[in-house]
Specification:
Helix content: 25-40%
Strand content: 25-35%
Distance between the termini: 49 Å
Number of domains: 2
Mean pLDDT: 96
CATH superfamily of the largest domain: Ribonuclease Z/Hydroxyacylglutathione hydrolase-like
Oligomer: single chain
Strand order of the largest sheet: 1-2-5-6-7-8-9
CATH architecture of the largest domain: 4-Layer Sandwich
Bound molecules: MU-OXO-diiron
CATH class of the largest domain: Alpha Beta
Number of helices: 12
Radius of gyration: 24 Å
CATH topology of the largest domain: Metallo-beta-lactamase, Chain A
């Protein structure tokens, strides 16, 4: 892919990783991803904004063959998908200064073994002149590492946001063209990466909303020519309001828990509650994370295995615990053979979720009519709780 102009003497470069299917050895990438870097040329200085994943260094270096001089390399974020090629780029441009936040300098030295003498730190709001134009740095810690920042190009009204507002989406289109697809990818990305930092991101959205931004250029996925599209989406996802939605994440060994889930999902749906149902043997963790963005309630369904919940429930609760979604309520449905501590064990697994527990339904063996009645009552308790919390 050649350099592509996105403004006056401003270029996209980087790599589209069509085939990558897993990120951080954890996150599914059904649509691949891209590592977007950018080049800004001033009358005196040229700056490279970010690099690419180390595995794609060759592509970046081929693009840089037509760039004789780089004065500054801005590292917005030290994670290796953006900074991985930094040592190779620095070797090609030995006079270039690396610009980053103080925390990023520490991480660059630790993770990429870069010579500290070549790294300069920049303050929030600091401007650097490129001759006939300048760039400004905006510190935005915790999107999603502690060292992150963005760069503002005021004369072209472009905001380079690195991970923030990005999406894991490999596409030949430089800009968002299919909004439904872009929305889904960006929401998945937000859910997996940004959700734990929701409160801070609210502040960054407010800051960006005050700026005359023409183009948001993230470091993953297509660029946003319509900044309000992604800003409005982020406002919704990060808002304190949850929705009349329930996540039912379950696993069943011999059909008893599945029968409970089937019945409960129908009872919730009859009450007008949107249900996101996930079988934890086949779940796409990204879809589960997306569902957690808006849900008010999570219900975990599990058989009892060795007194406690099935091991796959540990994965789901760990995820929910780490992502710190807006959930307000939780409950558990459990089928056991001869004894169980599943409810108590699950309650111990979700300390970060600031939820009220709605009385669980625990069944010995296959659910009978009384058990189904108890599930109907659970659905009603969920609806009542949602009404009381003002999400209906
Ligand atoms: Fe795209 Fe946090 O790296």
């Amino acid at each position: 892919m050649k350099l592509r102009e996105i403004g006056k003497n401003v270029y996209w470069l980087g790599a589209i990783d069509w085939d990558r299917r897993l990120f951080d050895s954890l996150i599914p990438l059904p649509d691949g991803t891209s590592y977007n870097a950018y080049l800004v040329k001033g009358s005196e200085k040229t700056v490279l904004l970010d690099t690419v994943d180390e595995t794609m260094t060759e592509l970046l270096m081929a693009q840089l063959e037509q760039v004789p001089k780089i004065d500054y390399i801005v590292i917005h974020h030290v994670e290796q998908d953006h900074a991985g090629s930094l040592p190779t780029v620095m070797a090609k441009y030995p006079g270039a200064r690396v610009l980053c936040t103080p925390k990023a300098k520490e991480l660059i030295i630790d993770h990429l073994l870069v010579d500290p003498a070549k790294v300069d730190t920049v303050a929030d709001g600091q401007k650097i002149s490129l001759g006939d134009r300048e760039i400004e740095f905006l510190h935005m810690p915790w999107v999603h590492w502690p060292e992150t920042m963005a760069t503002w190009l005021p004369d072209d009204q472009i905001l380079f946001t690195c991970d923030l507002f990005g999406s894991h989406l490999a596409t030949s289109s430089l800009y968002v063209t299919d909004k439904a697809r872009a929305y889904e990818s960006a929401k998945r990305y937000y859910a997996e990466i940004m959700m734990p930092f929701r409160k801070l991101i609210q502040k960054y959205i407010a800051r960006v909303s005050q700026m005359p931004v023409r183009l948001i250029a993230p470091s993953h996925g297509p660029l946003h020519e319509d900044p309000s599209f992604i800003l409005d989406a982020y406002r919704d996802w990060t808002s304190d309001k949850s929705k009349n939605e329930v996540v039912v994440a379950y696993i069943s060994m011999h059909g008893s828990t599945r029968r409970m889930v089937d019945y409960l999902v129908a009872c919730l749906a009859e009450r007008g509650i949107e249900v996101h149902r996930f079988d934890l043997t086949t779940v796409d963790l990204g879809k589960l994370a997306i569902a957690l963005v808006d849900a008010s309630t999570i219900i975990l369904g599990t058989p009892t295995v060795h007194v406690g919940p099935h091991p796959n429930v540990f994965m789901a609760t760990h995820l929910a615990n780490a992502l710190r979604p807006k959930l307000k309520f939780a409950s558990i449905i459990n089928s056991y053979g001869w004894g169980t501590k599943a409810v108590e064990k699950i309650a111990e697994l979700i300390p970060n979720l600031n939820v009220n527990i709605i009385d669980p339904v625990v069944v010995k063996g296959f659910p009978k009519q009384d058990d189904l009645n108890a599930l109907e009552e659970l659905a009603q308790r969920v609806l009542d709780a949602h009404k009381e919390a003002g999400v209906v």
